[in-house]
Each structure stands twice: as structure tokens, then as C-alpha cells.
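Figure-free illustration: sequence to structure, shown twice.
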Amino acid sequence: MAAKVIAVAKDSTHRFSKHPVPAITLLAGLGVEGDAHAGVTVKHRSRVAKDPTVPNLRQVHLMQAELFDELADAGFAVAPAAMGENVTTRGIDLLALSTGTRLRLGGAAIVEVTGLRNPCRQIDAFQPGLMQAVLGRDAQGGLVRKAGVMAVVLQGGPVAAGDVVSVEWQPSRFHPLAPV
């Protein structure tokens, strides 16, 4: 089964959840057209407060729908866009990708994975206990953040539910994802 986009979302205001829409347009070097987090420099309020001149490595937030299945088994009801992602996928293990991996979304758009979303306290305000549910431990006891990956837009284009997601390029040496 090919990996697919199952939903897309955006919001022009800084909120925890985004609004599902039929399609989004990715803009090279900026992010999602019409989204509050689009821009060359950081747009997340906590990062802007520290240094508004830092490059925006969080232009697009991608999350795998398999996390929603896992959360449902734990008693949480989470739908696409509810945790603030722009692109919800199914069939690709986003968390296993290397930093620098390029993903083609649909026929034109290409994003480069920059790192992991670091879940914040807003998750528990959305649903109590959800923060702990999106964190796990690996075999060595290390923290695993499951709340998706962040990316920058290398090549713009439209993205909609049903579009194929494919790995366009991976670094020859694996670089583990870290929070950005």
C-alpha cells in the first residue's frame, strides 16, 4: 500500500488545533499558504519570544494517522488537524525518517524533514493525559516523541487528501530526528 495524505489543515490564527480543508498550497521557503506558522523566520510564539530572527524549521507539521489509532486504543479521540498538524499521513513511519529526508507530497510539493515536534502542555489542555500518551520510551529507555515531524518547504505545490507521499531523497548517513 502506498503512503498517502489522509487530511490537510491550516489556520490563520495561532491555536492548538487547525481547520481541516480540502487542499492546502505549500509555498517554497515559507510553509502553508494562509497558515499562522508560515514564514522564513520562526512563528511559534514561544520561539518568537526567545529570538524572532531564527530560521523557521517548523513551516509544515506532519503527523501519521497511525498515532490516532494508538491513541484510540488508549481511550483518546483524536481526529486529523486536532493536534495542530498541517498534513496527516498514513502508511509512512515519519518518526523513523532521518533529518534531511525529502518527501514528495502529491505531484509537485517537496518538503525536507527538519526534526520532531516537541509536544507542549497545550496537549493536556486539549485532552487531559494526552501529553503522556504521545510520549514513549525506546528499548534503551530513551524518550520517544510521537507528536509528528516538522519540515520546511523546498518546492511548493498543492496537497490534498488522497495524494501519494513518497520519499524523494534520504541522506546517505542516518541522522536521528531531534526536537526543533
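We now fold a second protein in the same way, so the two outputs can be compared directly.
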Amino acid sequence: MVGPRSLLFSLSIFLYNFCILLEAAAIKRGIPPNIPQYALDYAPLVYLHSDDEYRPSNIRSMLRNTQPKVNFEPISGAPSPLTLDSLDQLNNYGGESVYLTATKDVAADSQQPWLKGVAPDETGLTSGAISAAIIVNEKDSITTDVFYFYFYNFNSGPPVWGMKFGDHVGDWEHIMVRFENKIPTALWFSQHADGQAFTYQAVEKKGKRPIGYSAKGSHANYATGGPHDHTIPNFNLPGAFFLVDDTNQGPLWDPTLSAYYYSFRGDSNTFTPYDPVSPVNWLYFKGKWGDQQYPANHPGQYVLFGQARYGNGPTGPLDKELQRSAVCPSNVKPCWVRPFLSAKLEKE
């Protein structure tokens, strides 16, 4: 006779495997036919750094290798197995205080295979991994913002004078393209907690598609290759002095080939998938995609001048001002939409 506990366990395994099958179907489904065509025609392509060992990652793989915790303690009663369809339920167990915490300490082993992600193939596809989310916000009859979100399982902070700072599990970055009457006019490149904006005419392109450069380890997005000293937020200093990201023309990634697609309504903060197999509940998760910052006495951790070797994981797309009025998010003032890529003012 099968007991209730065994039955519940079998049901959990069935649901987990069913989600895997749905994911496989989503990967094979191609681009939904009802996505606005201009969101595809002008979707950014991204050069990954040639020496970056942490590539774009399957969004679901984070859930398979983490455990939800609050204040470093596992959440009792959390959905199990945790899926993208049930992730929002964690809001009932602590909301913004919930951290998707790696089941194996990354300070002890940052070479865990799941952290490494998937390198794009020659077509730009991260094969077998949905590693992006494309969100279309048709704000009114004229203006549309399309957010191209990129997911990585690990952020490796660049060294500062030989020391590492800012490593953390989970990394959400994005490029936003603003359209006026379906014509691209400007782009926002996320860079850590800040970023830069450019006119569409100014940026590098392949055909009509803008080019972004993902920094080694940190995955901050830049408009050109080379070193980027971001000691002053929203401004790249010439040379390389202190806080430096490095970019180059490594593998070319086309996130549209391995993405979930959604529309967004700013008046209600709601998402609608463009196809029936894309999960949507995960977008409402308010917690952190990664570990809580390790205490100072944690093996491998150190904190200098308020900066930690291992920091908090990031929040997800909902926390990235999808209903912004300017091209820049509200913390960037003034919002300078650069009409050129300047080697004199900024070494991009």
C-alpha cells in the first residue's frame, strides 16, 4: 500500500519532470508569432568577453541549485520542488527578505558547473538554456520600451588592486530600447546599479540591430569594447584606474533565440506571456536571485571600506523600473542620452 508521504513525493517528482518537459518545449518552440516585429528587428546582440568563464545561464537552473532562505535559515513550508511557476509563492514567506541560496557554498567552490552557464553556438543560441526574458511595455500609442533581460548564474566581480569584490550568485542585466512610433530612438545599457544611455543612431550595429558588450565576470553592458573605468557612476573615465570592467568581441550572443517573451502593463504591474508555455509567476517574485551577503566571519569573506568580497544576489526584472518615464531609471540624474560614442570624453 502506498502511503500519503510516498504519494506526495511521487507527485512532486512528476511535477518537476513535467516542468522540465515544458521547458524543453519552450526551447524548441521558436519566437512567438505575436511579438511586435520591431522588438525583434532591433533587438540588441551581445558580445560576451572571450575570457569570461561565467556565461548566460538557464533561468530554471538557479532553482535546481538553490534553497530559499531568510536570515540564512531555510524556509519551512516553501514550495518543493521550487519552479518558475511557484516562485512567487515565496513572497508569502518573507518577500524581499527571501534569498535563493546556493545549496553548495560558492566561497568554497566557485567552479561548480551550474554556475558556468552555456556558451552560445555559432548561431548565437545558448542551446538547451532559456537565458533571457524580453518584456514589451507599450506605454501609449506612441512610446514603447522593450527590455532585453539577460541572466547569469554567477557574477564574478573584477579585481581592484589585486583584490576581488562583488562576487555573488545570480546576475540580472539588461539593455532597454525605446521606440517612438515603432522606430528605435534610444538605448539604456545597465551597468551595476547605474548605466548609460545613447541615441539609437550613435550605437554600433549589425544591420539594424544594436550591439552591446558584456563585461568579463560582472556582465555590465557597454556600448563599445575595451576597458571601462566606472569609478564615477554613469560615466566611463579614459584609462583604467580603479573600478574597471573589461569588454571585447568574444562569442556573439543572440538572446532572442533563447528567451521568454512577455508584454507588461505599467498601470497594473502585470505580465502576460506571448505564448502559452512561457511561465509567468516567477516575474512577481520580490526576493533576491542569489545568496544573502555572507557574514564577515564566513570563510573566504572580507569587507573593506564597506565593500564585500561576496555580496547579495540581485532582484529580478520587476524591480528594474519597467514603467520609467525617461530612458534612464530614476536614480540616474540628469539622464544624458549621448548622441555619440566619444573616445575623448569616455573611453567606451
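Summary for the second example: Residues 163 and 309 are 8 Å apart (CA to CA).
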